[in-house]
Amino acid sequence: MSSNSFSYNEQSGGGEATELGQEATSTISPSGAFGLFSSDLKKNEDLKQMLESNKDSAKLDAMKRIVGMIAKGKNASELFPAVVKNVASKNIEIKKLVYVYLVRYAEEQQDLALLSISTFQRALKDPNQLIRASALRVLSSIRVPIIVPIMMLAIKEASADLSPYVRKNAAHAIQKLYSVVMAFEEVCPDRIDLIHKNYRKLCNLLVDVEEWGQVVIIHMLTRYARTQFVSPWKEGDELEDNEKNFYESDDDQKEKTDKRKKPYTMDPDHRLLIRNTKPLLQSRNAAVVMAVAQLYWHISPKSEAGIISKSLVRLLRSNREVQYIVLQNIATMSIQRKGMFEPYLKSFYVRSTDPTMIKTLKLEILTNLANEANISTLLREFQTYVKSQDKQFAAATIQTIGRCATNILEVTDTCLNGLVCLLSNRDEIVVAESVVVIKKLLQMQPVQHGEIIKHMAKLLDSITVPVARASILWLIGENCERVPKIAPDVLRKMAKSFTSEDDLVKLQILNLGAKLYLTNSKQTKLLTQYILNLGKYDQNYDIRDRTRFIRQLIVPNEKSGALSKYAKKIFLAQKPAPLLESPFKDRDHFQLGTLSHTLNIKATGYLELSNWPEVAPDPSVRNVEVIELAKEWTPAGKAKQENSAKKFYSESEEEGDSSDSSSDSESESGSESGEQGKSGEEGDSNEDSSEDSSSEQDSESGRESGLENKRTAKRNSKAKGKSDSEDGEKENEKSKTSDSSNAESSSIEDSSSDSESESESESESESRKVTQEKEKKTKQGRTPLTKDVSLLDLDDCQYSCICTNKNSRAASSNEWKRTSCPLFLSKTALHFW
Amino acid sequence: MIHSLFLINCSGDIFLEKHWKSVVSQSVCDYFFEAQEKAADVENVPPVISTPHHYLISIYRDKLFFVSVIQTEVPPLFVIEFLHRVADTFQDYFGECSEAAIKDNVVIVYELLEEMLDNGFPLATESNILKELIKPPTILRSVVNSITGSSNVGDTLPTGQLSNIPWRRAGVKYTNNEAYFDVVEEIDAIIDKSGSTVFAEIQGVIDACIKLSGMPDLSLSFMNPRLLDDVSFHPCIRFKRWESERVLSFIPPDGNFRLISYRVSSQNLVAIPVYVKHSISFKENSSCGRFDITIGPKQNMGKTIEGITVTVHMPKVVLNMNLTTTQGSYTFDPVTKVLTWDVGKITPQKLPSLKGLVNLQSGAPKPEENPSLNIQFKIQQLAISGLKVNRLDMYGEKYKPFKGVKYVTKAGKFQEDVGGDFFSIGEYHLTAAHCNSKGRKLQ
């Protein structure tokens, strides 16, 4: 045991010592609890001493060993006091390891963990940005509720840090804060209404965001697009019928686009998203490619989704886990739109070296893609699969052949013949599977197949697989009038072996007996009664039950009721043929690429992909609709307040923006005027909420003044002067014409401010800066709203931190600190404390 | 997103655990073990498992299972891709991704995991950045560290993280400035009994080894860029440039990395460099069979085909094989029933062949299916697709770098099936051939 304590001594200590240590543990550990504990104590004693020594090297050794213990999942919590003392160590490596320890155990030892807090607070002011960042990270990972206020303070400071790295960490930390505070709170699904302002920015920056962020953003934007744009498939509905031909014959995309344009024009924002995600299909990260693929699948016009197949097929060269997920998704897609993957049919050919789960998935896709044109090639391919040494796969292939046979009428007979040939296969699993599939096929076409049934009856002598035996018996029973000579003989044989059969088979013997009794009682009466007697005393109560039921039904006696008259009809009714369907049929209601889709169950936290809205694609209408949605989501009373606040901030945002571009002093004044406006606005909204109906005029005037405020500010601005004021006027007009609440007008302003940024973003490098600044502003504008809003902000801030590195921070950081942070924090605090 | 990670070895020991949020008990892995037991072999353990409170997403790499614990909806590929990135990083740091290596370096592993994932969300996954944060272990460094007391944790923030190009560190300096590109192509093919190609495509990658000082801006152009059918890029490549001019323009990361991978799939472009003549027959009612295969060159563009290996998974009833070969050596493993024939080079004058007797279990029925052959080979100085690098230009730095390109063609998944009849059409089916051509050329 003591050797174990040295096992993580030093990397250079070599593997041997470690392994010895490991062995020692594993052999000793079962030797009794007492020994284990005593040695643990001893070891920890010695670790404590090392931690208290003056030498950094000893401390480092001790910490390394402790981390080793954590990694093994052993309990090292009693060392907590000794470790915590070292949190102030000057040695950066010791410090990091102590952090690792703290993150692991602080939750269990909350009181002691508080001891370390002051050190963190000091570390947060460290000149080294790396230390600041990691202190913040640990602080936010500690998960001790009491420190939440401290955390908020720290995050506030960090978000105004000069180092973007620290800010990025702050963004992560905010999330963590929330996970502590609102342990049960789901990530609010209504945050979709908060994406609006950032939508274009996100689209434009997507390519430059780091790859993990891309995946998250794309998934989010997919959901967003489904609520905000009308379906591009609308007019496709007419085309739906000949969609197949579409893909097969016509590759000319332009023609299609032209066709589509007449009845339906895509929202430019919708187009923007589709266009900007396309390059990401080329990403080396499979998750990104899959994310784009599902975006195209869910929101692009059907005619354009074709481009994703090539990239998905490329992913099939990747490792088995990626293949597995990608194939599953392709399987779902290929059910609905065969044409997409037909050109890549051969990429789904099975290789003998594939794992079985990959093989079965490929088989599934091949089946989905089968049609009259390619079926002969496919059958030839299947024929090699049937002979595979992997019997599970061979069985799956036989099922597949059955499905092809039912789907494509031309080959039904060929398949049936092939399957019959397989009945003489040497492998029992293959034969059994064939029997089961043939049974289903025969059931579907009740033509004369006497020969096949006879052949199968003979098989009963040799085959032992219960499912197959049961299938044969059922078939004979069903067709007992077509094979009048064989059926009773089979029953005779079965009566003999009844007791040794599987339950499944016994049930079918009972069925067969009953059917024969009804059709041919002369020959089989005694046999059936014998079988019923055997069944009566069977060990399995299902069988006893069934026996009783059948006896009452078919054997006439004085007690038998009216039902027995219909016994024949009951037993020999025409039965509906089973449908041979793809197991992926029911998965399409899940968003592709999600965990829920893979598991085919709704995973925790899965957000339903909403249906396309029915609203006309007019962008301004869309904006209105957006706000209405927002209203629905927010509690009734709150909504107005929120909206008015929104309006105010979006205004101040524009002011800030214009002044920013001219000079610093102006920005100062701009934000001031914003604050003034704010108080006015708040009063306004109060009125609004109190006297809902009558206050319209008041609010109108309030808004008017706000707008005027803004316009004056704009006149000052040198950079944008004209165009901006024009914009403002437009807004004004719009807001007047639309007979609506503040909410609407504010949203229009938002969108127009966005479109400004959009139009500016023509030249690449500049646009980035501009949008980034914009983003900052929007952030400021939005942060003080409500808790929901700030939640998204966190996301937003995180992304911005990721992608806005070269941001100039001069004046804006001050503003940020002054306006948004305290407000945001106090709001959250209010909300939760 | 990712809650916890467990590393499990082949014998089912959990030898490392790391939690990014609240601690999840090891017992969650029992569900994984259950699934593992159900699966016939390690390859068939489902990558995504649902348990009552968590979801387990796992990958299998180098005889280790990386099992991550997830609590809410997340794109599974996101996690899988990340886990592979973790395994790649271990490989990169310790030279191998094995239990021993991870146990030896448990502290570094912990530090790495801490950096790579923050609160379950990937933070730093670029190897260039990680290496600046945490220096990889070397014997020299551990000696120096123990003497001077310095550590392997960087105390400054990696510069790349703050620049616009997060994959490259700043202040790179070399005395010899070099840029090498390896164009490696693999042929995947399935060839049927008659020798005609059922399916063939070329999978290519360009691996780069760039050791250039400063911030070089490179552009690589091809003689025939249209060949590249479907390409995936390293994030450093400017996509717009490629779209408009078909030129790869990029500021490279420092060191080794994969620049692009591509696919050339249109059938007629794929030349199959080797052919195999074979006859494998088993007599009814006797416990032996005949085995005879010969390999010859075909469409090899005048280059030598080397490193040929033929692998055959013989049917289970085969007990042993007595073969003679004209070239190379063969082994037959009676447990796994795998026949491996290491051929070496092909000389057209004398084609290598392998023939002899197959002993079957007495009394067992003869195998119904003839096995498929998997073939590996290598052709130096040839990219079988015909892809050629035109030139490499460097901007942004003054010095003259040393530039080189190497071409290799390899067999990828090259399979031939020697099948029987089912639907009355006989076919023989070669699953995958890999060609790979390498050559080095100076410009």
UniProtKB/TrEMBL annotation, chain A:
Membrane topology, record value: Peripheral membrane protein
Name assigned to this protein: Adaptor related protein complex 3 subunit beta 1
Boundaries of every AP-3 complex subunit beta 1 serine-rich domain copy: 645-759
Biased composition (Polar residues): 1-11
Subcellular location: Endomembrane system
Chain segments carrying region Disordered: 1-27, 241-265, 635-787
Positions with biased composition (Basic and acidic residues): 242-258, 639-650, 700-711, 721-737, 765-778
Keywords for this protein: Membrane, Protein transport, Transport
Pfam families: Adaptin_N (PF01602), SEEEED (PF14797)
Sequence ranges of Low complexity compositional bias: 738-750
Residue intervals of the Clathrin/coatomer adaptor adaptin-like N-terminal domain: 178-555
TM helices/strands, residue ranges: none
An example Gene Ontology biological process: vesicle-mediated transport
Family from the record: Belongs to the adaptor complexes large subunit family.
Organism: Rhinopithecus bieti
Presence of keyword Kinase: no
Cellular component aspect of the GO annotation: AP-3 adaptor complex; endomembrane system
InterPro entries, sorted: AP3_beta, AP3B1_Ser, AP_beta, ARM-like, ARM-type_fold, Clathrin/coatomer_adapt-like_N
Compositionally biased spans, kind Acidic residues: 651-669, 682-699, 751-764
Superkingdom of origin: Eukaryota
From TrEMBL, chain B:
Family: Belongs to the adaptor complexes medium subunit family.
UniProt xrefs under Pfam families: Adap_comp_sub, Clat_adaptor_s
A Gene Ontology cellular-component term: Golgi apparatus
Membrane topology note: Peripheral membrane protein
GO molecular function: small GTPase binding
CDD domains linked: AP-3_Mu3A_Cterm, AP3_Mu_N
Protein name per its UniProtKB record: AP-3 complex subunit mu-1
Major localisation: Golgi
Function: Part of the AP-3 complex, an adaptor-related complex which is not clathrin-associated. The complex is associated with the Golgi region as well as more peripheral structures. It facilitates the budding of vesicles from the Golgi membrane and may be directly involved in trafficking to lysosomes. In concert with the BLOC-1 complex, AP-3 is required to target cargos into vesicles assembled at cell bodies for delivery into neurites and nerve terminals.
GO BP terms in the entry: intracellular protein transport; vesicle-mediated transport
Species the sequence originates in: Rhinopithecus bieti
SUPFAM superfamilies: Second domain of Mu2 adaptin subunit (ap50) of ap2 adaptor, SNARE-like
Superkingdom assignment: Eukaryota
UniProt-annotated location(s): Golgi apparatus; Cytoplasmic vesicle membrane
InterPro entries to which the protein is assigned, alphabetical: Adaptor_comp_med_subunit (IPR050431), AP2_Mu_C_sf (IPR036168), AP_mu_sigma_su (IPR022775), Clathrin_mu (IPR001392), Clathrin_mu_CS (IPR018240), Longin-like_dom_sf (IPR011012), MHD (IPR028565)
Keyword annotations of the record: Cytoplasmic vesicle, Golgi apparatus, Membrane, Protein transport, Transport
